[in-house]
Amino acid sequence: MTASVFERRVQARDDLTWVEQYRPQRSLLRKQSYLVFKRVFDITACVLALPLLVPVFALIALLIKLESPGGPIMFTQQRTGKGGKRFAIYKFRTMVPNAEEIKKQLAHLNELKWPDFKITNDPRITRVGKILRKTSLDELPQLINVLRGEMSLVGPRPTSFAASTYILWQTQRLDVIPGLTGLWQIYGRGESEFDARLRLDIAYIKHRCFALDIEILFRTVSSVLAGRGAH
Description:
Mean pLDDT: 83
Number of strands: 4
Strand content: 5-15%
Number of domains: 1
Shape: globular
Radius of gyration: 18 Å
Order of helices and strands: HHHEEHHHEEHHH
Low-confidence stretches: 1-13
């Protein structure tokens, strides 16, 4: 193991000290009560936020249409949720309309281990898309997924690849409902391999409680404002 890799692992462990301080068994909300309260909180937060976000949604939709009139405003993609169940996730479109077709042509430039896919300065991303991704505004339509119960505000990010791609130890992340944000978004590790991101998910699952969810939400806002959010 090189010194730089060792240093990153030590740093990652130190960074997660605040997560390890949470003990679900000490929480006032037991497991079932926590899940019910979490769901009520998700619905309440979405209902209160949506009216305030309508003007933002309208402006984003207008900007997307102005840049590429022939393409759709929304982008839907099949993602893997709790128990490996597939569902359609909603996002504002940040790429050219034929991005999936071009992806095959760019496969040789992939910087991550397949089935992950990432290209620095991806040529498929539009000018508006770059802004939406940097601010994470493209993720806002997933509040619809939260209202439908397919996602929660906090949890592991749902993967685009199916559960059949996972090896046994990785399936732990499928034990909970995926989230709009989580530890990966806080640490801004868009360049991380799936295994590294998954260890953050497992840390969340092990310590999850309502207090941790609230802290993750606050830290997510801080990360987005600081430009550290992972996409």
